[in-house]
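Lab notebook, page 48
Experiment: co-folding of the full assembly
Goal: obtain a model of how the components sit together before planning crosslinking
Operator: M.T.
Materials (sequences as entered):
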Amino acid sequence: MTDSTAADSSDISALLERWSRGEKQAYDQLLAHLYGDIHAIAVRQLHGERHLTIRPTALVHEVYLRLAELRHMQWQDRAHFLCMAAKVTRQALVDEARRRRAEKRDGGWPVTLSDTNLGASEAAYDALDVDSLLGELQQFDAVAADIVALRVFGGLSIEEAAEALKLSVATVNRRWVTGKSWLARELTREA
Amino acid sequence: MADGGARARAYRLFAAALDYQGEWRDQFLTRECNGDPAIRAEVDALLNIATSELAVTGALLPAPERYREDLTGQTYGHFRLTQHIGEGGMGVVYRAERSDGVQQSVAIKLLSTTVGQAGRARFEREAQLLAQIEHPAVARLVDAGVERGRAWLAMEFVNGLRIDEYCRARGLGVDGVVELLAQLAGAVAAAHRMLVVHNDIKPANVLVTTDGDPKLIDFGISRALQEVGAEKSDGPATMAVGRLFSPGFAAPEQINGGPVTVATDIFGLGALAYRLLTGRTTFADAVEPLDYMLAITQRDVELPSAAAQQSGLLAQARDLRGDLDAILCKALERNPARRYASAMELQADLLNYLARRPVAARVPTLWYRTAKFVRRNLPMVSFAAILVLGLAVGIALMELQRSRTTRAQDVAARRAEFIENLLASADPASDKPSVTVAALLDTAARELDHKLGGEPLVEASILGMIARTNASLGRYPEGLAASDRELAILRAQGGSALELGRALTTRGDLLREFGRWSDAVPPLQQAVAMLRPLQVPADLCNAMDTLGLVLARTNQEKAAEAMYHEEIAIETKGDAALRAQRIHPMFNLTVLLGEWGRFTEAAEYGRDALALARETLPADHPDLLSIETAYANMLGNLNQPVTAEPLLREVVAAQTRVLGPGHKATLLTQIGLGQNLLTQHRYEEAAATALPAARSLESMLGADNAYALSAWHTYGMGACGSHQEAKGIAALQRVDEARRRVYPAGTWVIYNTQLGIGQCLYHLRRYGESEATLLAAVSGLETARGSGFNRTQEGYRALGDLYAAMGKPDAAAHWRSRILP
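Observation: model returned without errors.
Model output:
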């Protein structure tokens, strides 16, 4: 995948316009474009690194900054954008981690995540582990899993997550504590 | 606990248990787990995570009160935790006392990071470095270590308030706040010398003791943290983009992943200053971290004074305007390279502000320094001098920008520097209470040799500037002395043709101002010859213009006219700036042709020059005013004195305001007004207008000065017409005597004085003497300028009146027949 961000700028701009006018179709196309964008940034940063820690939040913020610049306006609906970006980021990082794992004979170098809001600010977790654990959490507390995914991959604040998921701040706060604690516990569980 | 069902059950129990506190929770779990120790252990582990400091709720949210664990009583190193103080994104802070009996209070920061072996080594290395920062305004690092997998730092316990609370509580004014900031900048500089960057300067990290001493806390902690975290990845490949940051205080490079350097702390100090002085953080409208990220990377901060205004701090806003605006904006530059190069420089500028010295942040430095100098010396510096100094400085700056070759650039830069130092040295705080521009120039001239003895070309260049500035101040002898030195240096050092050409022009112009027109011709002719082959039209035209002026005064009007026309042709082909310079030759042609009696042509050039001047020069510009004078004088000569009079009065008023009442240009317009009144036969007013001008010009320029003589002439004529004939004749005779010495024989001005004397004698009814004088004057004027010249015509009229009074109507008719309609 080459860095397609520059070429796609005008497309994305147009899609954002259409999406903000409420066109459902634009949303899917936008997702595809964003995927390309975020994946390109991730790949660029991962390039040449045997093992690199990604801050997904920063990744999303970079895209956000870029798009906001592109549009020369403030996001009307930042929470929804971040929600979308979190989804895309998760997908892009997981895909990349899988690709690496498949490519390298020795199992490849993992993609790890830091600045995940999960507690110890400098701790880094394997992207694939986080993804599969969130999948498991989805089974018994889907709301908490969504919240954690938004916070970890999109850097959403509690308030933004509440807005994006149409939940009260108190609920989000509470489910975040439980979901995050569980994830942290599973991630640091001694093998 | 591999079983998915059991994990789900443990999760649900854990979530439910959070609703219970203390023993209720215990009871709830005992009941629910129902003797299943594996489930109970799992729930306890989850609860532990949720309530421990290891899981701070979100980096930007404080941990909810109820999840906090009380660590009082635990010991770290020699210290026992005694009291919870606070917490932040990085960890929790306790007050602690030494447990080995020594009296020492410290603040212990427990980092919310688990640390392994490698991280521990790095952390301890980092802590050692931090412990070496010794500065009264830095909270000292007492000890550090890793215990129970947790890194801790013991810092000097500071009993004080957060700086923003302190400033508010004490009602500190701008100067008080700036003093604190200067101390902090010094502390940051000390840390930078130890190669430690704070990286997170904000109000929460600055305490002020009860004695009023500021203390920076958490120095280098974020860096130490990074070292701890680095063990997790394989190398230094931590992704650059994005980190935890404090909105309102984080620098752009902390957001967009640029390298964090000392410049980051400069920004932090700037942001802290901004918060304390304006009452709001930078980009106060950007509440959300993301908004701040956008704002800080894309916009410049709002001017501090404007921010204070919006906060309703009107007095602060006034104090911030200017220097502090500049200082803060320089510290808060988005591009790190454009901020202060060091915390020392920032501190120096804050101290400059406090001492009311010029601050380095203000650009362009030279202009600003001039303004500062002038403001401090206001009573001593006349407005005229300000203007002149401003012009000199402006020219210096302009030349600095324009000079193309390296050498010229060097010379210009060194000169600007010299002037700057000169102005800086005239500090009122030092014991020199009254420094005038004139004194400044003399100091410069004196000090040049030992300051710039080794740099003759720079010295020459400054001498040239001193010469020109003195000329504008009407200090011609001083100007000439400087000009002499300049030329001597340039000749001895093999100055370039351009440098010599310019110096010769200055010299010629000074001699011209002095009224030494014949002396002025050779240097100016030399200058024109030297500059003509070079591609320097502006310099060439300047020399030609000046040469034209002296040719016009030395009976070479035709050559002068040709010179002006050639100059106009060159300027017309040039760029906009050069085309605007046409004002000068056009103006000079107006005067020349007017004196020549070619009024119609003169009026054309006058109108053009005036239109061009009004278009290109700001209202009240001295050149514009001079041109208006010339135009009005010409209208007077065109027999429209009544139209011209109000214009002249306006110009006198404007020049008095802009240049001062004693300025040469003002006085020259007064002469014009006097002459205008003469043609309206309002002799008494004419004498009253001309007399003070004559006295001022004489004391300024000397008794033989052409302008002074012209003023005395006007006064003499006015006096004669208003029954003060004796005084009038005495004045005119002095003028006559001087003009015969100063002007080359045969110059029309000499006959003009004679004409005036003849008219006076006529008023005194000394007809015989009057007849002889008038006949000689008219004959001279006819030879010099022809019969159409307005002075010649005036002579015909005077002879007509005289012969009529003498009862000789034929003779009267003879002369009157020569008067043109």
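Interpretation: Residues 78-103 of chain A form the longest helix (26 residues).
Next step: discuss with group before ordering constructs.
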